[in-house]
Amino acid sequence: MSDTSTRAAAIRPWMTEKIFLGLSLPDYLRSLATPFNAVAALIVAAGVPIIAWRFLHGLGSTTNLSQTSPWGLWIGLDMMSGVALAAGGYTIAGAVYVFGLKEYRPILRAAVLTGFLGYVFAVFGLLVDLGQPWRIAYPIFYSAGPTSVMYEVGWCVALYTTVLAIEFLPPVFEWLGLRQLRERAVQIAIGAVVLGIVLSTLHQSSLGALFLLTPTKLHPLWYSSFIPLYFFISSIAAGLGMVILESATSHRLFRDRLDPRKHVDLDALTLGLARGASVVLFTYVFLKLQGLADSGDWPYLWSGYGAWYVFELGGLALVPCFLLAHAARTANVRLARIAAALTVLGVVLNRLNVSIIAMNWQPPVRYVPSAMEVVTSLCIITLGVLTFRWIVNRMPVLAEHPDYRDAH
Amino acid sequence: MELSRRTFFKVAGVAGATAVAGGRLEASPQVVPAAGAAAMLVDTTRCAGCRACEAACAEVNGLPAPVASPAAGTRVTDTSHFTVVSRYLPSPDGAPHFVKRQCNHCLEPGCASACPVKAIEKTPEGPVVYHRDRCMGCRYCMMACPFEIPKYEYEKAVPYVRKCEFCAERQARGLAPACASVCPSGALTFGPREDLIEEARTRIYQHPDRYVHHVYGEHEVGGLSWLYLSDVLFDRIGLQTDLGKHGFAELTQASLAAVPFVITLWPPFLMALYTFAKRREEAGSVEEADHE
User: Mutate which of A75, A79, A127, A149 to test chain B, going by most B C-beta atoms within 10 A?
Assistant: First the structure.
């Protein structure tokens, strides 16, 4: 009796400090009443019943998927785009740990967290999309299909999500005050980072390789034997673009979580990332043109799909490439952020084009996602943003924990 | 930090060797069809469009009876109709042409190579079969099939893929597939693939004016277990002619073969970069200390 009461007495301050941000429960709940939360709650409240409905009545009751379009928005947006945008994790981790660009360390944890949540919610989207999601571990534990690119993707995504979780352990342990475990987690960081880059190289490219099996269905301008390479290179650009946007947003919205004693020159970091993203995008556009020349699909450019292709590659890859370079040269941080947004949009559009829009381009029946699919995707993205905010508000993500400052 | 050259080369050497061995494992072809693997010859010139095959298929697979009188034009299979006979009017004299459609049981099936859980498998005996107890519902087989044959039970809470399995169970008992066993017009001939190719060539040779001089399925997408003869161009009776001669399983082989190389060569390369960066940093800090 007395034991439980002392435990309860010990838990309350812990909850107050760790979970309720130092507020009492009523105060904490009151602090949640914001316009942003109202919108988020609305989206989640609309999405969750749809997901429940989908599991009770099947994919046909909620989606516009068909026998000719078996992959829709949940694969194209949540999985294909989500994983590409989560590439900031391995990109920045590689820059800091492997290339020794230590000046990017202040934005590393947020990039890793963005990556981790990107994967977690991509898998969440996949669970909603799979016909029998309770069998999601079958490729790994029950019936291996090593001839399949998807088998490889499954392994890589499972392992890499674990690796990202490991990479994010130090801030979790700092939050919980577990000093010794934190030391262990820091020690294995370099191994985790290298493994993370290997796994990312594999599955970012393999997500593209999935479409090697659709030569008769995917429009020739997007179908290419180089598609794994396109996916890999563009994921780096998407990752860098996301880190630029995410750090800009975080440093504005979570100003109180920054370390006032340690000024981080985010502008300088942003311009550095912009320079990197520009080079990567240039490589990407060049490779795409090389692939186009190799396939000789130029005549397709003079068609509706051709115009769409030029819009994607020119407008949302080459233009942001030059804008990023210009921004870096003229130290225009605002322009760098706009160009980063265009870059991210361009990669998302590419993933949507490959998996949905330029897929099945010949048959008259077109797939257009249902309203319920759109709401579900929005719901999953919103849950990701809310989780990001929950963690950033509690754990030392944007600034180092005071007890561990400069302890690397 | 002393990373000796020997250690580095040891790692790289092991990595390279593993990669070569692994590459061979991953890229190996799936199934070598047994000699005498089962096949079917569809002579569309002999098909009278009675659709007894559809009825027999429905009965054997426990599916609803076929639709009464379908319209002309391409019909497609669905989750409760594994085979359908389409009626075409390709020639000016108005004579109808009938074409039976079902899974073609490719020799190198895209669906089977796409399946991450081996729920779809090409058996050495010929049929491409589906193990429903393994399927997790990713629907990659549907993406990978150029004939759009695997069909999904979107309306069910616990859905499966449905398609023709070439009556693999009947074949195991020594019986012909249901469709072939009831065909009254001789349009369907069941037998070993080599024999059927011979038979098809013989028919073309004996009636060069009647047939298009091509056995559809002999080489399409690496070869099909279902072969077609026709007296009009194949694309006029709904058969795709833009598929090429390469098996779909080959399309991802290069990509999969690269996996072991990335796994084994990336880490030592990245660790080397790490070591260089670290050493440069240490040298930098020593210099700084000297200046102070």
Answer: A149
**A72 in B contact zone (CB under 8 Å):** no
Helices (H), A254-370: 266-295, 304-310, 319-330, 333-352
Q: Using a CB-CB distance cutoff of 8 angstroms, which residues of chain A are in contact with residue B109?
A: none
A200 pLDDT band, cuts 50/70/90, is very high
Give the angle subtended at the CA of A30 by the CAs of A28 and A32, to the nearest 5°. 75
Looking at the 3D structure of chain A, how many domains does it have? Answer: 1
Asked whether residue A319 is assigned to any structural domain, the reply reads: yes
Rounded to whole angstroms, the Cα distance separating A43 from A381 reads: 10
Separation CA B23–CA B15 (nearest Å): 12
Q: What is the pLDDT of residues B194-253, one digit of tens each?
A: 999 999 999 999 999 999 999 999 999 999 999 999 999 999 999 999 899 999 988 998
Taking only the tens place, the pLDDT of each residue in B40-68 is 999 999 999 999 999 999 999 999 999 87
Smallest Cα distance from B98 to chain A, Å = 22
Asked if residue B55 belongs to a domain, the reply is: yes
* Residue B50 domain boundaries: 38-246
Q: Is B126 left (phi over 0), alpha (psi -120 to 50) or beta?
A: left
B48 contact partners, CB below 8 Å, separation of at least 6: B98, B184, B185, B187
Looking at residue A360, the DSSP 8-state letter turns out to be T
Q: What is the domain count for chain B?
A: 2
Instruction: Give the per-residue pLDDT at B124.
Output: 93
- A222 CA to centre of own chain: 22
Element housing A175 (H / E)? helix A169-176
Give mean pLDDT, residues A309-334.
Answer: 96
Predicted-complex ipTM score: 0.91
